[in-house]
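Before a colleague's protein record goes any further, I have to sign it off. Would you go through it and say whether the fold makes sense for this chain? Take the sequence as given and treat only the tokens as open to question. The record follows directly below this note.
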Amino acid sequence: MINFSLPVWLKQHRLVVGEMLLAIAMTACTALTSQSLASPSKTSSLVSHTQNATAEPLEQQAVQVIRDYYSAIARADYKQAYSAWYGDGTASKQSFQQFKQGFANTKSTTVKVGEPSRIDGAAGSSYIEIPVTVTAITKNGTQQRFRGSYVLRRINNVPGSNPNQQQWLLYSAKITRIN
């Protein structure tokens, strides 16, 4: 049997030290559990107990971004639509003025959203591709149809990320006119 001798200061404060170690261990376990439950995972369907019970799945949140994007365009709220693009609009590969000008002749838009792809991850981010069919009516009444898809990106719940970064944003688009 090995006989350990504790330093005098530790003998006098071992109850306090023990309580502190227990508190540290409990805090670490809680943080790890919360982080792993809140982090998106392709292999896990666990939901954090701290999330709202009515929270939408990530795929539906991404679909809603597309719907909100076209709703903003239909209202001529181009600032909101432009801000749906990653990098404060820069992922659209247009300046705000170019983006706004692209809808100058648009009277209304509707979007039909297809089935989202599965969520893929890379280097702390998640990506999803969503197919769309868009119908636009020009100011002179001409109907235009477009088909393609958007790729959306969000930062995962990683150290240093904030809730705004963890929202889906438009990352790229492949949209072509079909009529």
Observations:
- The beta strands are 106-113, 120-122, 125-138, 143-155, 169-177.
